[in-house]
Specification:
Layout: E1 10-13, H1 21-30, E2 37-40, H2 46-53, E3 63-67, E4 73-77, H3 82-93
Parallel strand pairs: 1-2
Antiparallel strand pairs: 3-4
């Protein structure tokens, strides 16, 4: 976020085990993401909420959904390498 002021980042905590909001805040702070928009699932039926985000999502975590300005989507299951994320972001700026 420091390098890309044009980035609109939305983080969604969709863990099956409910997280305490103060724990999530601590993780965001340690990653330098306190100014990012973030949401925590607050529904006992998390599968329904995951379906709303991406009907193809099977619930694996971590899961990253990248949405370009034109609405195109790229999904990544597992940990996202920072270089791959920067490449995708740079491609969007062109």
């Amino acid at each position: 976020m420091k390098d890309r002021k044009d980035l609109h980042l939305v983080l969604i905590d969709a863990d099956l085990v409910p997280n305490e909001s103060n724990n999530v805040s601590a993780v965001l702070e340690s990653a330098g993401l306190t100014t990012a928009e973030n949401w925590i699932f607050d529904d006992a039926f998390a599968e329904r909420l995951r379906y709303e985000i991406d009907p193809q999502w099977q619930g694996e975590i971590p899961y990253t959904l990248l949405i370009a300005a034109d609405g195109s989507r790229k999904t990544i299951s597992g940990v996202v390498e920072s270089n791959a994320l920067r490449t995708w972001l740079d491609d969007q700026a062109r």
